[in-house]
Amino acid sequence: MLTQAERDGFRDLGYVIRRGALSGPQIVEYRAAVDRVVARCEGPDGYGDARRGSDGQIWGVNNIFHPSVREPALLSSLGEREILGVISDLVGPELQYHLCTLLVNPAGLSYRLRWHRDSAFDGDMTEAALQAALRSHVQLNGALRRDHCLSIVPGSHRRVMTPGERDAMQTDPDGPMPGQMAVQLDAGDIVFYNSNLLHRGDCAEGDSRQTLHYAVLAHHPDAPTGPDVQTWLTDPAFLGTLPPPLRALFGNWLRSG
Q1: 3-state DSSP call for residue 251?
Q2: Residue 223 pLDDT > 80, yes or no?
Q3: Which of 159, 151, 140 is nearest to 102 (CA)?
C-alpha cells in the first residue's frame, strides 16, 4: 500500500503525509459526526472528557468511543484501509488500540500548545529509548477541513535534543523551534507520525478545524499498556458489533491490560 520511500520517510523523518486519503463522501459523513459529538459535549448533559479553553470553549474531545458521544461513522473510520492499513504498513500487522480524539477550533479563541514529545513533555529522552520506539506506534491527524495547526521538527524522534532545541524548550517552549516545519493539510489529507517528534499544536481564532487524532500501537503481548480508564470498551455488546479488523485491534488492547 505504501511505497518504500514513504516507509523510509516515516522511519527517518518521523512522518508521512497521504494526500486525499479520505474521499469526499467520507469527509461529509465524518464532519457531520464531529458536529454531533461537539453538540453533545455542549448540551445540558455535557461530557467530562472534552478539552476546554480558559473560557470553557471546546477545542478537543478525548475518548470519543465513550457511549455518551460514540458515533458509528467515527468508529468505522479507524478500521478504514487508508488509516488502519497504512498503520499496518508502517509498524506491522499486529496492532492494538490506544486512543481516538477529536481536535476542533473553539469559536473566538486561539490556542497554542508548547513543544513536547508525547512520551516526555519536557522533550528529554535517551537516544536508546527513542530508537526503541521507531516502530512502536503511529499517531495521525486526519483533516476534515484545512488544517495547518501541527508543527514538527522532522527527524527529532530519532535523537536527543540539540543545544538549540533544549534552549528553546527552556526559554520559550511555545515559541519558535530550530528546524520546525508546519504540516499543511487540506481536507482529506492525513499525516501519520511518530509522537516522539518534537511537535506542538497552534490553532488561530477563526480557523474551522475538524481533525481526527488517533493513535495505534504495535502489539507486544509482554508490554502491558491496555485497559485503564476506558472500561466501556470492554462491554461485550460493544465488542460484538465490531468488524473483524477492529475486533483484532481491541482484542489485542484487552489482552495487554
Answers
A1: helix
A2: no
A3: 140
CA 79 to chain CA mean position, Å? 15
Q: Which residues contact 206 (CB under 8 A, 6 or more apart)?
A: none
- Tracing cell 479488523 back to the chain, one arrives at 245
**Length of the chain (residues):** 257
pLDDT at 99: 94
Instruction: For residue 148, report the phi and psi dihedrals to the nearest 5 degrees.
Output: -115, 30
Judge whether 60 and 103 are in contact, CB under 8 Å. yes
* 141 neighbors 211 (Cβ within 8 angstroms): yes
Euclidean distance between CA atoms 84 and 95, whole angstroms? 9
Distance (Å, rounded) from C-alpha 257 to C-alpha 23?
35
Beta carbons within 8 Å of 89's beta carbon, 6+ residues apart:
1, 2, 7
What confidence tens digit (pLDDT) does each residue in 90-99 have?
999 999 999 9
For position 207, what pLDDT does the model report?
A: 75
Scanning the chain, the segments in alpha helix (DSSP H) are 4-13, 24-42, 72-78, 86-91, 127-132, 163-171, 236-239, 244-255
Domains of the chain: 4-218 (2.60.120.620)
The residues that bridge with 140 in the sheet, in sequence order, are 192, 214
